């Protein structure tokens, strides 16, 4: 008779009986089978060896204790737990057993360990260094992005103002005089350069028909007003380097669009197909007039140099250009009437805070 | 010096003629006419000059016999040994102090000369005492004794003798006794003050064998009780300060060895495979270094034989292809038969043709070539930095030989071997940084690496009761002592208070491990003491089965002929019985060769048996046998085995693979050499060896009932944790109970 189980004063709280949902026969059978499999599986040699080593390590790390009969005898001889034998300066722990399992030379193991540790250290250092920089980097990136946006805005303003200024000038001069010299050099490099480029890109070499590119200035003018909205087209190299990048970017985009369009067209039509019904204007509208195409492919060291500058520097150049030329303050978003720029707090963004 | 000149003038043969009645020649009347050379000799007051005169003859200082021609030849060589130059210095210190430390490198001549220096000063033949000189190894004790007997122009066993376990070559005349340190310890058990000695020399103390360490502890105590006892500690290495300090600042005398500088080379990177690196280095030396022999240190027999084969093959190729000189390879390890060990002293082979490149020999040795053996001609030493060392851990009770890195002291010793004849080179196959950081300073003394059960029994017998405070140079871990006491208690050699029991006293009479001794003492109870006696002898000698690499299959087949289904012990017994049978005795050598057995081991077992039998008769233990026809013949033997080895039992795992040792719960496998199948539930083993796997070796199947019956204290069911072993034992108890009930009812 087990007295304990009936003792209601017993403080022991019975383990909650695990409530198992009704196990179906199949479930039980599967469970039993799995258990048997685990139990009956013959362990691999490696597993056995690992177990053997683990048992050895476990036993080696456990010291003999007071339950040992020898302990009591030693106690009678005056042994103090934790002290050494003899005069007391001996060892308290037995020598450990190290089983050498390979033929590695003296120092190989520690060399391996050292190398491994070094690698780990380096990795840890790298991660730590990166962690430290992360915030700075993100901050910097964000700022650069913002400045880049400001540059873009400033470029747009500069373009607008420059175009307006040009137009104002144009209206003073004869239009042809201003345009013809600008137009001719564009066609010159076209044949050679565009050929290579476009064949490489498997781009339909429609532009190899320079004959079409003899539009009259008038026609050009009109078409320009239609396609390029109000903007006047100039060879990009003549555009102010400060906002040339903007134009170039726009042109690249345009070209891409056209390429896609042409590709789409070419599915049904030969790229060289020349629709006789198409008027010059239509061609222009459909982007078959590719005069500007070449230009953007050209190398532009000046622009490259400018783009290589940091965004802050570019922005400051743009801002000072606008100020000097148009008395426009990029930060006030206001064009002052004269170069004193009365009312503007300063040239930098901080001044406007 | 006043000696008897006529003895020299007369031819020896004439002297013994009865017709020549010169009473002076009558040995029985010699004392009347004696004006002995020893007259001038006062104990502890002699000088080197006096000794020299006495050595010069013409008669033997100790026997009075005329000295032979050979003696004088050897004497010349002896006098050129480094120790001779400091004989006076030695004597001065020896006179003044009770304990002294003597340091002499190998080759200084200390082992052979110092004891003789002592003889001429201590004069034990007059004072009816002896001088003892201990050696860690049996072979050394024997060979040095022989050497010194020659040097002193006496027969071995007369004035100079030796005593090793199971072999005593001494007589009444003996004044100088070389002996193993273990033997002196055993003697001390019956003569705790070592009264028969006037001087005790502990040689090769730097090797720090278990027995030497215990002896030092004892002698430290004895030296207080016996002020007249002189003690000399001899060491070959320079850690002598430790000995000085231990012996209360004993004076030191150091004699330089004859050594040449040795250049030491390290590898730039740690080696991936030290054996491979060693082979490469040896061949490289052979290809590119000038004349001189090579000594390569490896760890064990198998490794050495394998390396020897490979080097020979490669060297042959070098001869064919690169016109290299001949290279002869000699293996050297402890279990190699003596005549093969001797071969290492053969000279290097001559060039293949006149004017050709010189030949050389390459000795591949274990660390026995590190200190104990001196081989001249070695110029190059290759040291991979490993040796096989005994380890013991009381927590899992495993005593095994494991490959471990050597110590700095060992490495220096090895390097020193290259500078014996001329400046040499030592190639260490590890980096300098590894030498500095990885190697321990000194090899751990054996006492830290051994099971101390038999030592504790000896100490108890010696009257050392406070083992905890016994002053040892390097006391072992407390747990080692704890385990030893526990084992002795289970063996009933010590009672619960740690006092020696009758059985313990009896067991200490046998130069055996306590388990073996207890088994032997209990064997009459099982009516098989004759058989157990044979078995004990067989377990005390090296492996009796020979299994050469070239004929493994054949050797196994031969072994199978002797196999007993119940295990290796009975198989060994079968071998012994066959060996003693008339068929084998016709030509034992032939018989052993045919059956792949070691004649040497069997003969030595036979010798051990005789010695043990003598002790049994002395202790009045009955020698019995169960009749062979009795079906209990083998069972009785197995039960007797349990009486000694019940602590070395393993039980088969439930999963069916492998075994688990009882109580220590170590996973073990049966050693592949066993004749036992895999189906025995319980097995008893002689050894637990650790290699890359845990093995138990020399195994016999036993029954759990026997364990419970014969070793009931150890197999107290309450001492076992829940688990496989416990439930199996519980089942057995239940079975026994039911059987008894059944019997009672009938």
TrEMBL record, chain A:
Residues 16-26, 33-45, 106-148 have a biased composition (Basic and acidic residues). Residues 66-111 form the G-patch domain. Residues 219-228 have a biased composition (Polar residues). Residues 1-45, 106-183, 208-233 are annotated as: Disordered. GO terms for cellular component: kinetochore. One of its GO terms (molecular function) is nucleic acid binding. It holds the Pfam family G-patch. This is G-patch domain-containing protein.
UniProtKB/TrEMBL annotation, chain B:
It catalyses: ATP + H2O = ADP + phosphate + H(+). Residues 1-11 have a biased composition (Basic and acidic residues). Residues 91-256 form the Helicase ATP-binding domain. The keyword RNA-binding does not apply. Signal peptide: none annotated. It is found in: Nucleus. It comes from the Eukaryota. SMART domains: DEXDc, HA2, HELICc. It is an enzyme of class 3 (hydrolase). Its EC number is 3.6.4.13. Keywords: ATP-binding, Helicase, Hydrolase, mRNA processing, mRNA splicing, Nucleotide-binding, Nucleus. Residues 1-29 are annotated as: Disordered. InterPro entries: DEAD-box_helicase_OB_fold (IPR011709), DEAD/DEAH_box_helicase_dom (IPR011545), DHX15_DEXHc (IPR044756), DNA/RNA_helicase_DEAH_CS (IPR002464), HA2_WH (IPR048333), Helicase-assoc_dom (IPR007502), Helicase_ATP-bd (IPR014001), Helicase_C-like (IPR001650). Its main location: nucleus. GO terms for biological process: spliceosomal complex disassembly. One of its GO terms (cellular component) is post-mRNA release spliceosomal complex. GO terms for molecular function: ATP binding; hydrolase activity; RNA binding; RNA helicase activity. CDD domains: DEXHc_DHX15, SF2_C_RHA. Residues 278-463 form the Helicase C-terminal domain. Pre-mRNA processing factor involved in disassembly of spliceosomes after the release of mature mRNA. Belongs to the DEAD box helicase family. DEAH subfamily. DDX15/PRP43 sub-subfamily. This is RNA helicase. It comes from Glutinoglossum americanum. The gene is PRP43.
């Amino acid at each position: 008779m087990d007295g304990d189980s009936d003792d209601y004063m017993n403080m022991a709280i019975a383990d909650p009986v695990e409530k198992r949902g009704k196990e179906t026969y199949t479930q039980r059978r599967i469970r039993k089978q799995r258990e048997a499999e685990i139990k009956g599986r013959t362990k691999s040699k490696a597993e056995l060896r690992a177990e053997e080593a683990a048992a050895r390590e476990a036993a080696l790390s456990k010291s003999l204790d007071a339950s040992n009969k020898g302990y009591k005898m030693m106690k009678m001889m005056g042994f103090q737990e934790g002290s050494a034998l003899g005069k007391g300066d001996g060892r308290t722990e037995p020598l450990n057993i190290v089983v050498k399992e390979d033929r590695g030379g003296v120092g190989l193991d520690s060399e391996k360990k050292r190398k491994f540790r070094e690698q780990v250290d380096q990795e840890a250092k790298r991660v730590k260094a990166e962690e430290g920089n992360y915030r700075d980097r993100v901050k910097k990136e964000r700022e650069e992005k913002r400045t880049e946006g400001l540059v873009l805005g400033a470029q747009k303003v500069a373009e607008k103002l420059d175009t307006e200024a040009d137009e104002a000038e144009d209206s003073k001069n004869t239009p042809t005089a201003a345009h013809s010299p600008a137009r001719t050099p564009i066609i010159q490099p076209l044949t050679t350069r565009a050929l290579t480029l476009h064949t490489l890109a498997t781009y339909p070499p429609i532009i190899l028909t320079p004959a079409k590119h003899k539009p009259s200035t008038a026609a050009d003018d009109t078409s320009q007003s239609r396609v390029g909205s109000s903007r006047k087209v100039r060879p990009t190299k003549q555009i102010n380097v400060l906002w040339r990048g903007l134009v170039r970017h726009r042109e690249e985009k345009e070209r891409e669009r056209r390429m896609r369009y042409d590709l789409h067209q070419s599915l049904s039509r030969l790229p060289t197909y020349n629709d006789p019904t198409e008027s010059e204007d239509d061609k222009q509208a459909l982007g078959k007039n590719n005069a500007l195409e070449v230009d953007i492919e050209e190398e532009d060291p000046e622009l490259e140099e400018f783009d290589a500058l940091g965004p802050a520097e570019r922005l400051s150049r743009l801002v000072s250009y606008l100020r000097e030329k148009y008395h426009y303050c990029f930060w006030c978003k206001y064009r002052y009437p004269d170069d004193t720029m009365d009312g503007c707090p300063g040239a930098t963004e901080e001044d406007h805070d | 010096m006043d000696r008897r000149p006529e003895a020299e003038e007369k031819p020896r043969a004439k002297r013994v003629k009865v017709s020549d009645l010169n009473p002076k020649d009558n040995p029985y009347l010699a004392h009347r006419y004696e004006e002995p050379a020893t007259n001038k000799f006062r104990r502890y007051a002699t000088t080197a000059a006096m000794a020299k005169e006495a050595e010069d003859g013409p008669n033997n200082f100790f026997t009075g016999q005329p000295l032979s021609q050979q003696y004088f030849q050897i004497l010349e060589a002896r006098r050129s040994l480094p120790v001779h130059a400091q004989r006076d210095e030695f004597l001065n210190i020896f006179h003044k102090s009770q304990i002294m430390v003597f340091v002499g490198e190998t080759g200084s001549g200390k082992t052979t000369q110092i004891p003789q220096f002592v003889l001429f000063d201590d004069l034990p033949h007059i004072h009816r005492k002896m001088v003892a000189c201990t050696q860690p190894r049996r072979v050394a004790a024997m060979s040095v004794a022989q050497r010194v007997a020659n040097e002193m122009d006496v027969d071995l066993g007369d004035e100079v003798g030796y005593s090793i376990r199971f072999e005593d070559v001494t007589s009444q005349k003996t004044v100088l006794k070389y002996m193993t340190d273990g033997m002196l310890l055993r003697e001390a058990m019956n003569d705790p003050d070592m009264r028969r000695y006037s001087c005790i020399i502990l040689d090769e103390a730097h090797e720090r064998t278990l027995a030497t360490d215990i002896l030092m502890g004892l002698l430290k105590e004895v030296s207080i009780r016996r002020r007249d006892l002189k003690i000399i500690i001899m060491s070959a290495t320079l850690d002598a300060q430790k000995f000085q300090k231990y012996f209360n600042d004993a004076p030191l005398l150091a004699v330089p060895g004859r050594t040449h500088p040795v250049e030491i080379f390290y590898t730039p990177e740690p080696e991936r495979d030290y054996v491979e690196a060693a082979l490469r280095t040896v061949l490289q030396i052979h290809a590119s270094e000038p004349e001189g022999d090579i000594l390569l240190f490896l760890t064990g027999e198998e490794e050495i034989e394998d390396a020897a084969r490979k080097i020979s093959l490669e060297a042959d190729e070098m001869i064919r292809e690169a016109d290299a000189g001949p290279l002869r390879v000699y293996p050297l390890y402890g279990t190699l038969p003596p005549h093969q060990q001797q071969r290492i002293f053969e000279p290097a082979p001559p060039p293949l043709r006149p004017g050709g490149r010189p030949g050389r020999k390459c000795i591949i040795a274990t660390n026995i070539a590190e200190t104990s053996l001196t081989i001249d001609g070695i110029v190059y030493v290759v040291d991979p930095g490993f040796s096989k060392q005994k380890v013991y851990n009381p927590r899992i009770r495993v005593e095994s030989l494991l490959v471990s890195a050597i110590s700095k002291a060992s490495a220096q010793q090895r390097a020193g071997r290259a500078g014996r004849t001329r400046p040499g080179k030592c190639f260490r196959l590890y980096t300098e940084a590894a030498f500095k950081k990885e190697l321990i300073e000194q090899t751990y003394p054996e006492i830290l690496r051994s099971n101390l059960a038999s030592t504790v029994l000896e100490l108890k017998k010696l009257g050392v009761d406070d083992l905890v405070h016994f002053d040892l140079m390097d006391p072992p871990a407390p747990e080692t002592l704890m385990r030893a006491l526990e084992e002795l208690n289970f063996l009933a050699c010590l009672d619960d208070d740690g006092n020696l029991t009758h059985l313990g006293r009896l067991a200490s009479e046998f130069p055996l491990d306590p388990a073996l001794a207890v088994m032997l003492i209990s064997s009459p109870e099982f009516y098989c003491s004759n058989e157990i006696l044979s078995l004990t002898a067989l377990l005390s000698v090296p492996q009796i089965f020979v299994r050469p690499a070239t004929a493994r299959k054949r050797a196994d087949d031969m072994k199978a002929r002797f196999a007993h289904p119940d295990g290796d012990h009975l198989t060994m017994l079968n071998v012994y019985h066959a060996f003693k049978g008339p068929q084998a005795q016709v030509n034992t050598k032939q018989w052993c060769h045919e059956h792949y057995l070691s004649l040497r081991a069997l003969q030595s077992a036979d010798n051990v048996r005789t010695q043990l039998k003598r002790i049994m008769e002395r202790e009045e233990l009955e020698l019995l046998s169960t009749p062979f026809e009795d079906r209990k013949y083998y069972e009785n033997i197995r039960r007797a085995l349990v009486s000694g080895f019940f602590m070395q039992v393993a039980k088969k795992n439930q999963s069916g693979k492998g075994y688990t040792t009882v109580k220590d719960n170590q996973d073990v496998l049966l050693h592949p050499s066993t004749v036992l199948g895999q189906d025995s539930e319980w097995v008893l083993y002689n050894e637990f060896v650790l290699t890359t796997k845990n093995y138990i070796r020399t195994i016999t199947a036993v029954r759990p009932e026997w364990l419970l019956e014969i070793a009931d204290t150890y197999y107290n069911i309450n001492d076992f944790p829940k688990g496989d072993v416990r439930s199996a034992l519980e089942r057995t108890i239940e079975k026994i109970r039911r059987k008894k009930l059944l019997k009672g009812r009938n």
